[in-house]
Amino acid sequence: MTTVFAFANQKGGVGKTTTVVSLAACLAEEGLRILVVDLDPQANATSSLGLSPSSLKQSIYEALLEEVSLLDVITLTKRVRLDLAPSSPALAGAEVEMVGMLARENLLRRALDGALDRYDFVLIDPPPSLGLLTLNALTAADGGVIIPVQCEYLALEGLSQLMNTVNLVQEHLNPLLKVAGIVLTMYDMRTKLSEQVAEEVRRHFPGKVFQTVIPRNIRLGEAPSYGETIMDYAPHSRGGISYRMLTKEMMTRFGIE
Amino acid sequence: MTTVFAFANQKGGVGKTTTVVSLAACLAEEGLRILVVDLDPQANATSSLGLSPSSLKQSIYEALLEEVSLLDVITLTKRVRLDLAPSSPALAGAEVEMVGMLARENLLRRALDGALDRYDFVLIDPPPSLGLLTLNALTAADGGVIIPVQCEYLALEGLSQLMNTVNLVQEHLNPLLKVAGIVLTMYDMRTKLSEQVAEEVRRHFPGKVFQTVIPRNIRLGEAPSYGETIMDYAPHSRGGISYRMLTKEMMTRFGIE
Ligand SMILES: Nc1ncnc2c1ncn2[C@@H]1O[C@H](COP(=O)(O)OP(=O)(O)OP(=O)(O)O)[C@@H](O)[C@H]1O
Ligand SMILES: Nc1ncnc2c1ncn2[C@@H]1O[C@H](COP(=O)(O)OP(=O)(O)OP(=O)(O)O)[C@@H](O)[C@H]1O
Ligand SMILES: [Mg+2]
Ligand SMILES: [Mg+2]
What is the model's pLDDT at position B32? Predict the structure, then answer.
């Protein structure tokens, strides 16, 4: 039984890609088979996993819009049991191309169908918007949406719009969609603001916010420049330790051995 | 003669809104008449200037899609000479509505026509994407695009896609569009990474990068929670001082008395 999670938030720079890539590495380390789907034209997850987006012959674009099998697009990464459906610059034009297509919100769900039995988890990294790429991610996410929320005031503002979209998708496209969890990121111990934001989020989403809070940690910003996850680059840093704790908490919450 | 700037970058969380709001406050302090256009459905610029997006009767949405005059939408802010064309949640649906419209990339440019003579500068804050809202911003930006670039590795990746879009808009929609400047943001003195990224950007865009670098400064994150710009909240903080310096540098570069 494969569980598909989308890590959505239209607010930019809140740690969506960092959370997907870090959790994927930790889950693979625990022995699970993981597929990361990079659904952002910026291809940050692809480069964070050590691949060069412009050098790939095929990407998730071809699997969504040209009926190429996802299995032909999936590529191995440096980590065992961690595979990637990479992004490419071609994805930038995808949303406009999808507008007129039949069942356009289901393109990713259909593409995933052929690959699900090979993986325990699929983690989808969408772009910072609520457009068709993110709608595809939410429609495919039978395990639910995990929302990274940066501990900054401006990151609070967009949450109600995000919840509107999640509710609409649940009503019209994916009845299984729910908020599977909320991850507080870039928590800065030096400022009261982080704690104020964290409390506000816990109040609005009782029972959904993971106990593990991801601190601001320079190593998390450095790891992608080496094409490595935090688990390879600095596993004993505060960033590495907190994502490992988050993984354990996730496994308990979702009943994974 | 009014100059219109767009502050575009599809990478999320790089400081677009913070730069627009901070520069606007500084330019108004220098005696110039400023209009901020909030083109992001998240309405971060609107709340950073102390207004509540959900309580406004009209927003930029009505000026773009319902032929309401921009002058009827513009609202005053706490700062003298700093006006705002606010965003609202309705803007979230705008991009899909625009797809089929005639001259859809010119909607903002046409809306601005009626208001230009009242302002010295118009600063546009787009969402983190290269969709129709950002295309409208670039098409209206006769002064050019100013690109905030966060001093992080992942922020480098999207610059070539952004430049592709800028060049396409310059060729087909706005011959005056150019890169008017690049602002390095969230520079962290504690890590080599920031300097490496800054050097890389200066190498790729010779002569475009402002000398003034904006440091990471907690006060910039706190100011929006009070609905104030950094010039009101903490004018003598490193964040306040650096944006004041950037404003002076901008005025020199663009020959503003
Ligand atoms: N906990 C953290 N501490 C410090 N830096 C971080 C942390 N998490 C992420 N970063 C860095 O902050 C930047 C933004 O993170 P990331 O790119 O993962 O966010 P995102 O939500 O995926 O952005 P986008 O909206 O553009 O897709 C990146 O440069 C990343 O390396
Ligand atoms: N120099 C800085 N130092 C510290 N924090 C900053 C700085 N500049 C911006 N911030 C904070 O970082 C977050 C991201 O900045 P901001 O929202 O301005 O970026 P953006 O590019 O407009 O984001 P989006 O892509 O979502 O529109 C905000 O919470 C903001 O308050
Ligand atoms: Mg990302
Ligand atoms: Mg913004």
Answer: 97
